UniProtKB/TrEMBL annotation:
It comes from the Eukaryota. GO terms for cellular component: cytosol; membrane. This is Oxysterol-binding protein. Residues 385-415 have a biased composition (Basic and acidic residues). GO terms for biological process: intermembrane lipid transfer. Residues 366-415 are annotated as: Disordered. Coiled coil: none annotated. One of its GO terms (molecular function) is oxysterol binding. Belongs to the OSBP family.
Length: 415
């Protein structure tokens, strides 16, 4: 059950919201250090947000069936646009109650799978860096071979409201029918800001532009806008798809609201035109992610690791929230100190930071979308790529015995 927003509450809550507003006006840009009032705490960790990339597995897998490179790029753009509602509005669509997610600990995992008409699609999400915080993810649709990998961090600033620049990128690999080489898409992440803060009903609006560029030579540019004082609708966007480097030669244009519906037209946008309609998108029912029951999860899996904190948040028992959070934070601090003393670093379970070689995707496609060759590694703790060998080793590991699981939980989470 969602808790009431501050405007629906009285007295002390209103006062603590005012204090919160005052405090964010001077905060330092590190979102994890933001001390939010209790009623705005979410029991979901940011590692879980990677799920939002694929809640319609059939739309995710569809580009693998398309032999034409421009149409494939359009299908990828369509999939990307359909993920936005889940990514940025699913937690607060009706009431404006975007909350502060749990700040993941290093090594935190979120694993799941979808089983539906698109077959099995697997999700692996891992907190690969704590200072600065960065989450990496890998999603693969087994039958089609379509896979997405990426990582992200956030840099926040305050000017009228909380403004967030997303750092990182995603890479979508699409096997091409009857070709030996797959088509690769480099995806940048939109900036966002929080609306409704002053009224105590926070929700996200996207701003600026983001890009998707393909190894076969097509680029999509998406421009985001919101509701202005006089005109415009919430959560709006326009997008164009063109041959890379020829922005004026628009092949397809898309416009609408990413929370509602949008229309795809061929050719450039024409004022008030219903011509050349290719497709109209209305949100589909979501495919549900399957997550193992808590007792079968690895101790570092998010929902198991945070279960006591989540239960305390649900009950509104803030003393327990604070005690249980501190146990995890202290155990993590001790672990980092121990690693330092022993001259070792935390071994990521599924991802490896590429420091030795140039990343071929960023080298080839990064300049088209303004991404640096190092993937902003300095701001995300590394240029993170999914490591098939590590994943294979993790898959072969026998499940931990109860005794080993509780030893690990004690050592790494203080539980
Ligand atoms: C800014 C944000 C944390 C980051 C969240 C990200 C950017 C994470 C990656 C996902 O793919 C997309 C995504 C969606 C929502 C973003 C969160 C919204 C609010 C949260 C802030 C840390 C909380 C701000 C406090 C307040 C008052 C709004 O709750």
């Amino acid at each position: 059950m969602e808790s009431a927003t501050p405007t629906q509450q009285t007295g002390g809550v209103g006062a603590s919201w005012a204090a919160f507003l005052k405090s964010i006006a001077s905060f330092n840009g590190d979102l994890s250090s933001l001390t939010a009032p209790p009623f705005i705490l979410s029991s979901t960790s940011l590692t879980e947000f990677s799920t939002y990339w694929c809640e319609h597995p059939s739309v995710f897998a569809a580009p693998a069936k398309e032999p034409d490179a421009a149409k494939r790029a359009l299908l990828v753009l369509k999939w990307f646009l359909t993920t936005l509602k889940q990514q940025y509005a699913s937690r607060s669509e009706q009431y404006g109650n975007e909350k502060k997610p749990l700040n993941p600990f290093l090594g935190e995992l979120f694993l799941g799978k979808w089983e539906d008409t698109a077959g099995t699609t697997e999700l692996i999400s891992e907190q690969v860096s704590h200072h600065p915080p960065a989450t990496a993810y890998h999603i693969t649709n087994i039958p089609s071979g379509v896979r997405l990998e990426g990582y992200n961090a956030q840099k926040a600033s305050f000017s009228k409201t909380i403004n967030i620049k997303q750092i990182g990128h995603a890479v979508l690999t699409v096997p091409v029918p009857s070709a030996t080489e797959p088509d690769t898409f480099l995806i940048t992440l939109p900036s966002l800001h929080i609306e409704g803060l002053i009224f105590g009903s926070p929700y996200i609006e996207l701003d600026g532009s983001s890009f998707i560029t393909s190894s076969t030579g097509f680029t999509a540019k998406i421009d985001y806008s919101g509701k202005g004082w006089l005109s415009g609708k919430k959560n709006s966007f326009t997008a164009v798809l063109y041959p890379t480097g020829r922005e004026k030669d628009v092949l397809f244009n898309v416009s609408g609201q990413w929370t509602k519906s949008f229309e795809i037209h061929s050719g450039p946008a024409k004022y008030n035109s219903k011509d050349n309609l290719v497709e109209e998108w209305d949100p589909l029912p979501l495919s549900e992610l399957i997550v193992a029951p808590l007792e079968q999860q690895h101790p570092l899996e998010s929902r198991r690791a945070w279960s006591k904190v989540a239960a305390a948040i649900a009950k509104g028992d803030l003393d327990t929230v604070s005690v249980e959070k501190s146990k995890i934070e202290n155990a993590q601090r001790e672990m980092r100190a121990k690693e330092k003393a022993e001259g070792r670093t935390w071994q990521r379970r599924y991802f490896t930071a590429r420091s030795d070689a140039t990343d071929p995707v960023l080298a080839k496609l990064g300049p088209v979308v303004g991404l640096p060759e190092n993937g902003d590694a300095d701001k995300t703790g590394g240029l993170w790529r999914f490591d098939d060998a590590k994943s294979e080793a993790a898959r072969k590991e026998p499940p931990l015995s109860e005794e080993d699981a509780s030893k690990l939980a004690k050592e790494l989470l203080g539980q």
